[in-house]
Specification:
There is one protein chain. With 144 residues, the protein is mainly alpha-helical. It contains seven helices and no strands. The protein is globular.
Length: 144
C-alpha cells in the first residue's frame, strides 16, 4: 500500500471526481440526445471514452484540457459552470481547469473517408485531431 492510499487520498479523489461528474450528468440529461456524440467528435475520441469521463460510476477524471470544450458543448448555465469548476478544483487541486487558463476551441466539421474499420477510423480521427492541434499551435506561435 502506498502513502497516498494509506492517507485515503484515492477515495477522496474518487469522491471528488464523482461529484463533478454528477453535475455533468445532470446537465447532459437535460440536453438533446446527440450531445455525447458531439463531445466524442469534438475530442476526436470514441463514445466509450466519453462515457468514462462523463459517468460518475467511472473513476476516470476529465482531462483539464477537455473541460472547457465539454462545458461549451453542453451549454452549462453560469450556475452549473461555477458548481462544476468548484467541484473539479476540489477533486484536482493541482490541475487547472479554468477556462481562462485553457485555449478556447471551436468546432469545425471535416468529412473524412470511412476506412472500413472502427479502429482505422479512430486512428485517422486521432491523427487529424493531433495534426490540427499542432498546426494551430504553430500558427499561434505557442508550439515549436
Amino acid at each position: 500500500m502506498n502513502d497516498r492510499t494509506e492517507r485515503g487520498e484515492d477515495s477522496q479523489t474518487s469522491a471528488g471526481v464523482a461529484e463533478y461528474k454528477a453535475i455533468l450528468q445532470r446537465v447532459l440529461e437535460a440536453r438533446p440526445s446527440g450531445t455525447r456524440q458531439r463531445i466524442a467528435t469534438a475530442l476526436a475520441k470514441n463514445r466509450s471514452f466519453v462515457t468514462q469521463i462523463t459517468s460518475p460510476t467511472y473513476d476516470t477524471p476529465i482531462p483539464a484540457r477537455h473541460v472547457d470544450l465539454v462545458m461549451e458543448i453542453c451549454h452549462f448555465s453560469p450556475t452549473e459552470r461555477d458548481a462544476f469548476l468548484a467541484a473539479y478544483a476540489r477533486a484536482h487541486p493541482s490541475r487547472h481547469a479554468s477556462p481562462r487558463d485553457l485555449p478556447r476551441t471551436r468546432a469545425h466539421v471535416v468529412y473524412l473517408p470511412d476506412l472500413g474499420s472502427e479502429e482505422r477510423n479512430r486512428r485517422l480521427d486521432a491523427l487529424i485531431g493531433d495534426f490540427v492541434e499542432k498546426l494551430a499551435g504553430l500558427i499561434a506561435g505557442t508550439k515549436d
